[in-house]
Every structure is written in C-alpha cells, then in structure tokens.
Amino acid sequence: MRFAHQSGAWIVPSRPRAAEATAEKGLPEDLESLRFALEGCQRCNLAAGRTNIVFGVGNPSAEILFVGEGPGENEDLRGEPFVGRAGELLNKMIAAIGLAREKVYIANVVKCRPPQNRDPAEEEIQSCLPFLLRQIEIIKPKAICALGRHAAHSLLKTKASTGELRGKTHDFCGMPLVVTYHPAYLLRSPLEKRKAWEDLKLLAKTAGL
Ligand code: URA
Ligand 1: which of 83, 108, 187 to mutate, judged by most atoms within 8 Å of the beta carbon? Predict the structure, then answer.
C-alpha cells in the first residue's frame, strides 16, 4: 500500500488509491522524473497557450500539500504556482500556521494556464489529474488543503460548494483533506478570511503541527 504518514504509520484507504483513480500506471515515481514526463505535454488544448508548464514547488517531504486550480498569467510566465497577488496571500496563510512557503508543497489541478484565466474544462482537468495524483502519492503529506472548488471537486468527486465543504476534514484515499476558500476569492471577499483562518487552524491540527 502506497499511502503513509511521515511517521511511517500506514493508513488504510477508505477510497480507491490515487493511483487507481489515475488509470495510468506508467507515471514516474519521483518528482523530478514526473516533472520531466510532463515536458512538452500535449495532452490537452491548454498546451497551445502556455508559456511554461507549472509543475509545483516546495518541499518534496512536505507535511502539508496545498492544491490550487491552475496557473494564472504570472505563474505561466515564471513556471511557478501562486506567485501573483493570490500567491502573496497564500504565503501569508501558510505563515499564519507557522510555516514558510519552502516547508510546504504547492501544486495545481491543471499545470498549464487556461486562456484569459477561465475555469479549466473537465477534459483538461481529467488529462492533468493523473500528475497531481502521482504528486500526492510521492509526497505523502500528512494533510492536503484544497484551495477553492476546482481543487475540492477534482479530488473529492463532488459538486458541493466550497462553503459546504469547508470547516471539516474529508477523506482522500485515506489522507485527511481540508477545503478552504481560494486566496483569489479571499482577495475579492475579505470578510471570508475569518472562516479561512478557522480552516487553516483545522489543517494545522490535522497535520499534527
Ligand atoms: N491560482 C491558482 O489556483 N493557482 C496558481 O498557481 C495561481 C493562482
């Protein structure tokens, strides 16, 4: 069985393993090879408009993995997730639970920028999801934080709103997953930051921080 906490304690998955959800057995089993496997990716039509593939960044042994939606303009140009205004807020959210950006891992559901920052299409999500699932398998975080509805919907296979999903711990393949508002949404709706803070405290507690 693949999933384990950093402590080495095995978790019995109550849902299919991520690898089973990928229906793709051939993906590499370390982050650098996985990044290499994505080079020149033409699996979906986001390839046509991208400058850089935004694979993910951070500590390969991170205890917490943050999952966003997909790169925006700044991320596309830099090849790194969450480097714009939403990224600045995410960094503050990470700092609020006593961590630095370098201590966690940050990835997105889709690795290439959707044009005009539109929502990723279902077929684009499905093309890219095996790579996120394999990242999760490799990193084995103690807790996952889904930022916004696209990350939550893709991982939890639900259509429920972020408001319904937040505030509790979900099970993702035997790993705890906390949903909170996307930082871009929090920039538009600062009054929701209070709820996001509750979610972050839950995330930190769930990860044993
Ligand atoms: N929003 C996201 O969901 N991901 C990024 O990398 C940047 C903004």
Answer: 108
